[in-house]
Every structure is written in C-alpha cells, then in structure tokens.
Amino acid sequence: MESSDVELDLQRSVQAVLRELSAQAPALQSNRGMWRWSLHKKVERDPGKSPMLVRILLRELEKAESEDARHIIIPLLHTLMYVLTKATGITEELHRRTYAFCTRLLTLPAPYCTIALDCAIRLKTETAVPGTLYQRLVIAEQNLTSELYPYRERVFLFVDPELVSPSVCSALLLEIEAASGQQTPEACMRHVVSHALQAALGEACHAGALQRKLLASSRPALEGYFHAVVTAVEQMAREPSPSREGHRERLEEIYCSLLGPAVAARGRCGGDSLQDEPLSVPLPSPRITFHLWTDEEQLWKELVLFLRPQTQLRLSADLEALDLQGLLPDWELARASMLSTDSGIERDLPLGADELLAPGSPEAERAGLQRKGGIKKRVWPADIVMPGSWDGPPGLHRRTGRPSGDGELLPGVSRLHTARVLVLGDDRMLGRLARAYRNLRKRETQRFCLTPRLSLQLYYIPLLAPETSAASRRSELGELAAFLGRADPWYEGIVNSLWATIHKLAEMPLSLDTSQTVDPFILDAITYYVRMGTQPVYFQIYTVKIFSGDLSQDPAEDIFLTELKVKIQDSKFPKDSFSPRRRGMAEGPGAELSICYQKALLSHRTREVTVSLRATGLVLKTLPASDTEVSGPTLCTPTAAPDTDHMCLKVSVTEIVKTSNLAGRSFSVVTNTFRTANIQIQSQDRRLLTLLLDKDSCRTYKDVVRFEVAPCPEPCSRTQKSKVLGLSSHQQEMERNKAKVKPLLIPINTFSGIVQ
C-alpha cells in the first residue's frame, strides 16, 4: 500500500473516532469503542504507520485547539500518548511538537491542564530517552525485578457471582488466562530489550537479527541483557540534562555486544533490506487477577497479599490474627509513641548474674542516678491525612481531581505498589464496594500498614445481567455509570459500551484451539481503561443510622452510595393501650411522617426545616439526573464553606394530599422534591418503614420507626487522636474546632474526570 493510501486510511479511522465523539447517530452507537481499538490495531500490526498516525493526531489536536473544540482534545490526547508509548520510530521533532502542544494546554482550566501537565512530564523524559515509557510500564505491570525501577502494579478484577452470570465470569476468566499464558517473564524481558534498542537506534537496528538472538538466548543471558538495558535507560533518564545522543551511544554498545560487531556494522550500513521493516514489539497486557466477590473483607485481604513477600502466601482466616510480617516496619515507623512499662530508672531493673555491681562502686552510684528513655515522641508530618493527596476541587455534587502519584506519607516509606481495583456490575456492586472501602479506611486508622506503601486506584465497568438489560431496568441499575458517561464522553464511548460486548462474548462457543492468535477486544479495552483512566471522580458516601420498633435493640448503622428507598409497611408497631389516639390523624394511605432536614442553599446558609406530612414512600438519591446538574452547579466552588455543604441529597417524597368537598373526602398524590445534606425521618402513626440501600435486596432493613442520614465522615486515625492527648481541655477543644470533619469520598477513575 502506498504512503498516500496508508495516510488516507488512517485519516478515515481518526475521523470515525471524531464522529463518534461529536454525533449521536444510531449507526455509530452500535460500534462505540471499536474505532479506537481498530485504530491502535492498525499501527500495532504495522509499526511503520506509527509516525504517520502521530502526525495526523497532532494535526487534529492543533485544529481542535484553534477551533476551541475542547470535547475532542482529551480523547485525542489519550490516543496520541498511547501510540507514543508503544511506538519505536517516532522522531525527536514529533516528540517536541507534542510536548509544545501539551504546554499550551496548561492555560486551560481543569481537567485539561491537569492531563496536559502529566503528559508533558512524561514526554520530556521520552523525548530525551526514547523507550522510557514502554520500559517502565512493562516492568511495573509485569512485576519484573529491577533495582533502579522497583515499582509494582496489579489489576484486581472483582465480579460478584450474585450479580453476574456464571457464563460471563467464565468467559472473562478464559480471556484473561489466554492472554497471561503468552506473557511469560522471559517474553516480557525480550520485549523490553527489543523495544529499547529499536526506539534508540531507529533504522540502524537490525530488528530481525535482534529478535532471533533474543529467542536463542538462555534465561541468565537474557536477564543480563535486560538489566543492562534497564540500567542504561534509567541512569540516562535520571540525569539532570539527559542527552538523546548519549543515550543512543550507550545502547549501541549493548547492541554490539549482543549481536556482535559484524552484524551491528552491517545494520548501520544498510546491508540488509529486511531492517527497513521494523518488527512489531507488542505491549503486554497488565497482570490481571480474577476474583469472585465473597465478602467485604476480601478487598483488604487481597491488598495485604499483594504487599507481602512472595515467600509468605498463607492467609489466616481470622483477620485480626493475620500475620502482617513484612509490613510491620512501616507501622513501627508510623507509631506516634513508645511507652515503657518500667519506671525508667535503671536501678529498678532486675540484674542478671553477670550484671551484679559491687556496692559503693562508682558504676553502682551512676546507675542509681541515670534514667532510661521512657517515652520517645515522634514528630508527625502536618499532612498525614489518609490519603492526603486525594483532595480535589470542591463542587456542589461531585469532586474531581488527580492523585499526586507516588509520594511519601511517612518519611522513608515509599509507595512502590499500585493496586488497580476494577469492579464489574451495577449500582448494587458499587454499594458493596463502598462498604468495603469504608471498612478498609477504618482498619487503616488502627493498623496504618497499607496506606504508606500502597496507591489504591478504583475503576468501574457497568455490567447488567441479561434479564435486566431492558432500557428501564438498565437506567435504574446503571445510574452511576450514566452519570460518569455524561461527565466524561470518552468514558461513555470506551467503558459504557462494553456491557453488550461482554454478554456477546459469553454467548459465543468456547474455542479449544489455542494455536490461533486472536485479538481480545474486551481485554484490550480493560487494559486501555486502567492505563489511561487517571482522573478520579469523587462520590460522597452517606451513613444512615436506623432505629427499629424494638426498643431493646441498639440502632444499626450502614452506608449507601447511590440511593436509599423508603417504603411503608402494612404492619404497625405495638400500640400502648393507655395512650389515647391523636386527634386529626385520620386513617388513609401511607404513613404520617415527621421530616427534619437542613435545606441545601447556594448561599450555604443554615436553614432548618421541619415538616409533618402523609406519604407513601421516599427516595433519597445522591446523583443528579440530568446534564445541567452535572455541569452547571459544579462551577460554584466557594472556599469558605465546609466540604459537607457541597454534597447534597435529592429527596423525592410521594405525598398524600387530603381534600374535602361535597362528594366527601378524597386523596391525591403529589411528588415533592428538595435538596439536603442531613435528614431525619420518623414515623408518627405507628406505621413501620422498610429501607432499601443501593437497590440491593440483600441490604434491606425492615420494621424501622426512625432513621437519620448524613455524609459519612472520614475515619479519624489514631495519629490525629494522639496529637490531642498531651493538650489541656481548652487546647483540645480548640484543636477539635480547628480540624473540620472531612467527608469520606470514594474515587472512581475516568479518562478526564468531570469536563466543565
């Protein structure tokens, strides 16, 4: 195919991606996500097309910048960075043009400037040291051993068997296992060496001879080549002023030692026509572990196993008896104080037989006067809030931002591990994830062993059961996915379109022929999402305190993420035989409710409202239902108001209105809606209530007479408590007033966060 035909074919593919982002044509809806996948596959099968695709994408980005078409900037920029990470023949001029474009985006508001800054930082290193992005990505995702780059990543895929059919679970597991079987450590090391040499040497690299040499090398020899390449790349990338020419010279030495001077010289002189065709170096999919969701503590268990040494793989059934060997040094470093149990005077300590001192000796005199260190205080960093880097700009409904990446919450403790937790399911699964996330944060306030060493990233792919795939049911159980799709158009096209494809995969007959190589679309889409989805959208978790009709029972506490539905039961709680019936409380449909709430106002003034009404049900939703509620109120970001004022519930009350006329009494139904952050509801006429949390039938509370809803607070760590112990009562009160109660927010990663 001629160069003009190749460029025209790539241009058509890019235009198809742009039409998918700009139009809502039904013909394009059925192929959402496929255009991006086919575009990457074209350059993966023919690496020589990569420079041409980079030029086309840069041209479209510069055109979008001049026309202020911001809705396509982030998707095209993610596509461009993905190509630059995998490609080997990109010139320095193209790298610099991309870097210059990213620097111009820094003048735009978030999330454009946030994503552009991240891309510019990575491009600055990639321009001087080609192949750095690919090498670091493979080392971290495949857990390859490297002293110069010790970072580790893993993708945890959680599927609840109660919400997802067994056929879907089996299909996903088979696709993951088929891909992981071809990604041995030896193959990944060969990919790293081959990619680094081709990226640095360009046309001077004899790709065919290099690949044959690496395939014929033994494991020790291959490890030697791998560590030599990694050392050369990392040392050059860490220099204050890395040089592209210096990097090329270093890798030329490795290339000559690998192939020999004769073959290397023939490659530089162009003695073989095959060298003009660069071989494709695949980017292995990340290491994905498949898990069936069984209980809320499973998330914490898997994260602990991820951090533990490889030689210790036994997991105790009792969580409190779980051996955290290997993590304890971090906890010892994080301990605020070490309290001695003795008096602190050496003469009070029992002496051994070999430690007896002669009475009246100078040593005995000094021993009676010396003290041991009783309490060794440590100075806590001022920003040791868990996690201190997950604070985004406030908004009326949602908060969006980007984690600061690998940092140190404690001195000397590096966050070398990244756990990417991906859940499949509907809003019910997200409700269960929110409970597990809250339990994880509460456990960390007691042990504080995961947070200093682990960066936790959460991802979500909506997946509904086939019997619930009707439009109405899909909109009911996929509200959070629909919100993310409205907030991030690229998430809508890449992630929200996967559920139908996953069900089609489950319906296909299993192929036992492993000799054929297939392109796993679903696994590729998941890989693209976990790699490029770096912008979290924060959702408020709400806590509900539930009082039952049985006064002997203690109030129950639970949380919800998307919805709390209240239904009126037909039964009543026992009536006091001596209490007279209240006048004016006529029998009718529904129940008499007393509602006390704090009204959410844009002025952030406190306004308490108490009403009594008869209703047949209530629904408390945390997500806005329209595009105007996503983009409009989020622009209001006053800094003086506390964080809880920016979170609000949308409460819909189905009220029964009684009317009297000549024909008699009649009842009409009216739906009232208001916004609040805190609400208390109590039944007034002995009618019992039923609460349904996050649309999950397994989380139903019956025989309820009163409940209270408020934003779930961030668990208070023992470090924060220890700061107040040594203060007077007045100082303690001042510290408590100074420290505002932070709401507990759960981050779900998307490609761009909330696009204004």
From TrEMBL:
GO terms for biological process: G protein-coupled receptor signaling pathway; positive regulation of angiogenesis; positive regulation of T cell differentiation; regulation of natural killer cell mediated cytotoxicity. This is Phosphoinositide 3-kinase regulatory subunit 6 isoform X3. GO terms for cellular component: phosphatidylinositol 3-kinase complex, class IB. InterPro entries: PIK3R5/6. Pfam families: PI3K_1B_p101 (PF10486). Signal peptide: none annotated. It comes from the Eukaryota. It comes from Bison bison bison (North American plains bison). One of its GO terms (molecular function) is 1-phosphatidylinositol-4,5-bisphosphate 3-kinase activity.
